[in-house]
Structure formats: structure tokens, C-alpha cells
């Protein structure tokens, strides 16, 4: 069971990472409007990745606290009085697992969004030129 869960988790992380590069176009063939749209999409991916990662870290921490609390409640003052509290233990494990899954999806989305944003900024630099207007003189930098 444990091996199956780990395999499923790794497959989801791998698919999420590869999905970021599946439909990428060559940036040099896009015009300025298309690049601006792709830039906004990459910023949206960065924001989504940050949110998923932050919520995932919070859920993983809460799940860990619940699980540790369940273990400490099982063994009270003496080792002879063992009281199993499986519902709390399962809840903590489930919350921590969901948090870990969100972290596993959020980090690749965040990283690939940032990489894509940097690539788009480099290509957009040729469209974004500074201009200065004077008395009948137009200067381009």
C-alpha cells in the first residue's frame, strides 16, 4: 500500500512537471500581443504555484501536529495504559498527505512559471524600446 501511494504521488508530480512544457511555443515566432498574453499567463502560474505551496505547507504542518498529538495521546502517563486513537491519527495523516500533494504540485508550477516569465522578458526586450521626444527630434535607445 505504501509503495502504491508513493508511486502515485511521484506520477502526479512527474505529470505536473511535464505538463508545463507540453504545449510551449517558440517565443521568437510570437508577436508582442501574444508575448504579453503569455507573460500574464506565466505570472498567473507563479501566483497559483505560490498559493498551492503555501497552503500545502500549512496543511502539512497541521497534519503533522495532529499526528504527533494523536501519538502523544495514545501513551498517557504510564506505558501500561495504551489507548489507541486511530481516527485522530488517520485525520492527521490524511491532512499531511493532502498538504504534501499540494506542495508537490505547487513547486513545479511556480518554478516553471518563473522560468517561462524570464524567457518571455528576454524576448519582449526587443519590442520594448525607450523613446524620448523633443522639439522635432525623436531619439530611440
What's the order of the H and E elements? HHHEE
What are the low-pLDDT stretches, counting only 5+ consecutive residues below 50? Answer: none
Q: Could you give a short account of the major beta sheet?
A: 2 strands, antiparallel
Instruction: Name the helicity range.
Output: over 70%
Helix/strand structural class: mainly alpha
Strand percent estimate: under 5%
Q: Please tally the helical runs, counting DSSP H or I stretches of 4 or more residues.
A: 3
Q: Which descriptor suits the 3D outline?
A: elongated
Word description of this protein:
With 141 residues, this protein is mainly alpha-helical. 71% of the residues lie in helices and 4% in strands. It has three helices and two strands. The protein has helices spanning 2-19, 32-74, 86-124; strands at 131-133, 138-140. A two-stranded antiparallel sheet has the order 1-2. Strand 1 and strand 2 (138-140) form a beta hairpin. The longest helix has 43 residues, at 32-74. The N and C termini lie far apart (63 Å).
